[in-house]
Amino acid sequence: MSTTEWTFDPSHSTVGFTVRHLMVTKVHGRFHKWSGQLVIDDTDITKSTVNVAIETASVDTKEEKRDAHLASPDFFNSEKYPRMTFKGTRIEKKGNDLLVTGELFLNGVTKTIALEVELTDTVKDPWGGTRRGFEAKGSISRKDFGLTWNAALETGGVVVGDEVKINLDIQAIKAAALAA
Length: 180
Hints:
By secondary structure, this protein is mainly β.
């Protein structure tokens, strides 16, 4: 068995989300501060591991007041829960892609979620490194994580939709081969 460790490249990656606002448009957000560990089993990718930690106060939706509200106890409660984490528990092949199941800890609640992951090619970069991309998507219910703040609209509906779509575009750099 041969495994390789990969380092995430935050400057070429996005940890993002979208959620309905006022029932008419989607607000796009991202997190600027996050880190993680990815170890790929080169002989059987389903035995690989992934762990990610995201600083909730680093949320950015291009609106300072909204970002402050998202960091407040109404949403992420960043003071009490400064990080949300994802720990992969199962990886399955789905054709050329993967289904990565794991435990998401957010706002004091841990739930199992699944992410559909598209693998991109492995390439040599101009600086002698090896890089690989991962595009992941999935969705969660805000209510499942105790994120229930909302306001009713006069015309029906609510200010913030329940479904949050997760969108990850990750570039990773091959670190070193690890002995079994």
